[in-house]
Amino acid sequence: MRVRALMPMLCFVAGVATHSALAQDKSGARDDAQSFARTLTEAATWAAVAIPGVEVCKLMRIGIAERDWIRGVVVDIDKPYIRVRITDAGRFPHDLDGTAVSTGAILRVAPTDWTPCKFD
């Protein structure tokens, strides 16, 4: 469980290191490094989020200043998506891919849009 907690931090560190290295590189290796960083980030996201039973959260923006969080539990994995049962629909009405977000709704979503809510 602790490894899963460290994955988002690992992705951030890898992304920062890759970005700073790319700023210096003029040889055209930028695409390979960006592809590697993207793959690492996606793998870390899957490791942290795509586990049935994990509580996940998504930040929703309302207008230019207001933010709201929605929460759910991963119930199934349907690559390249996960199914999330909403446990807290937030303070405002939301819509994801044409589906209203309400408590109890099961949404088929991309795991890269979600983050673990708490760590063990």
Please summarize what this structure is.
The protein is 36% helix and 34% strand.
How would you describe this structure in keywords?
120 residues, alpha+beta, 2 domains, 5-stranded antiparallel sheet, two-stranded antiparallel ribbon, 2 helices
Question: How confident is the prediction overall: mean pLDDT?
Answer: 79
Radius of gyration: 16 Å
Percent of residues in helices comes to 25-40%
Give, in spatial order, the strands making up the sheet with the most strands: 6-3-2-1-7
% residues in beta strands: 25-35%
Coarse morphology? globular
**Low-pLDDT ranges:** none
Structural class: alpha+beta
Distance between the termini: 6 Å
In total, how many beta strands?
A: 7
> How many domains, as an integer?
2
Taking the sheet with the most strands, its summary is: 5 strands, antiparallel
How many helices? The count is: 2
